[in-house]
Amino acid sequence: MLQEFTTWLLSLVVKVFAALWDFVADAFINILDLLLSAVVGLISLIPLPAFISGGLQSLFSSLDPGILYLITSAGLPLGLGFIGAAYVFKLIRKVVTLFQW
Q1: Are residues 2 and 22 in the same domain?
Q2: Contacts (Cβ under 8 Å, ≥6 apart) of 56
């Protein structure tokens, strides 16, 4: 009878410490969430520069036709397309493999 009581009491103490540990972990996660939300809020307050607001199309359309010809001949649009396709492939691969890669 006494051994059953001490076993029950020990399991109770273990459960209390486990609950306290879970509480501390949840509090840390909540504080981290608040901190990251504040950082995202501060970053969203940074104004977008005027030359970026129109995207690459407005940047390329304002270039001199000679420079635009050289950029096109060098294959910059094709290279940017390949880089974009590589990022899309990487993201799709991560989603398909359930973020294992």
Answers
A1: yes
A2: 80
